[in-house]
Amino acid sequence: MLNRHTLIFSLVAASLLFSVGQVLAAPPVVEIVAMPHPPVKAALSQLREWLAAQGKQITVKDIDSESADGIKRMQSVGLSGHIPVLILIDGQYRVKRKDGSTVEFVNFPNQSNTPAGARGSWATTDVQAVLAEKIK
Predict the structure, then answer these.
(1) Would you say residue 92 lies in a domain?
(2) C-beta separation of 105 from 116 below 8 A
(3) Could you tell me which of 76, 104, 79, 87 has the C-alpha nearest to residue 33?
(4) Contacts of 69 (CB under 8 A, 6+ apart)
(5) What's 98's domain CATH number?
(6) What is the pLDDT, as a whole number, of residue 33?
(7) Distance of alpha carbon 45 from its chain centroid, rounded?
(8) CA distance 110 to 127
(9) What pTM did the predictor assign?
(10) Counting beta carbons within 10 angstroms of the beta carbon of residue 5, is it exposed (0 to 12), middle (13 to 18) or buried (19 or more)?
(11) Residue 31: how many CB atoms within 10 A of its CB?
(12) Strands (E) located in 35-121
C-alpha cells in the first residue's frame, strides 16, 4: 500500500516526465531571415514549398532581414551586414552534417541560377536533411 508521501512523489515524478516529453516533442523552429526581394524569394521557393508540405511538424517564422527585428536577430547570432538569407534551425545557422562537415545556412542557396559570388555553401537538401533528423 502506498503512503501519502510516496503517492505525492509518484505524481510529481510522473508530471515531470510528461513535461519533459512534451518539450522534447516540440517541433523544430525554422527562422527564415531574408530580404523581401524577388531574387531572394525565387531562391527560397523550393525550400518554402517543402517546409509548407511538412505541416505542423515544423514551425516556420519569417523575418524581414532589413527590418529592425531582422537586424537584431542576425546580430543575436553574431552576423551583420548585407546578408540576403539566413536560415536558423532551432536558433542555429551552423550545423554539422552526418558526414561530420559543417554547413552554414547563410546567403543564397548554392544553385546554378545564383551568381557564384552570392552563393552560400548550402543547398535546400541540406536544410531538409537536418530537419528530417529532427522530425523522425
Answers:
(1) yes
(2) no
(3) 87
(4) 63
(5) 3.40.30
(6) 98
(7) 16
(8) 12
(9) 0.79
(10) exposed
(11) 21
(12) 59-64, 85-89, 94-96, 102-104
Give domain status of residue 17, yes or no.
no
Kindly state the cell numbers that stand for 92: 542555429
Spatial neighbors of 129 by CB under 8 A, at least 6 apart, are 97, 98
| Cell 528530417 -> residue | 132
C-alpha cell at 116: 557564384
Could you tell me the residue range of the domain that residue 63 belongs to?
27-134
Residue 7 lies in a domain: no
Write down the pLDDT at residue 125: 94
Indicate if the alpha-carbon torsion angle 125, 130, 135, 136 is positive or negative. Answer: positive
Q: Does residue 6 fall inside a structural domain?
A: no
- pLDDT at position 21 is 52
Q: How many domains does the chain have?
A: 1
Confirm if 65 and 74 have CB atoms less than 8 A apart: yes
Q: Which parts of the chain have pLDDT scores under 50?
A: 22
Distance (Å, whole) CA 20 – CA 34: 33
**CA-to-CA dists, residue 51 to 35, 44, 61, 112, 133, angstroms:** 18, 11, 11, 21, 14
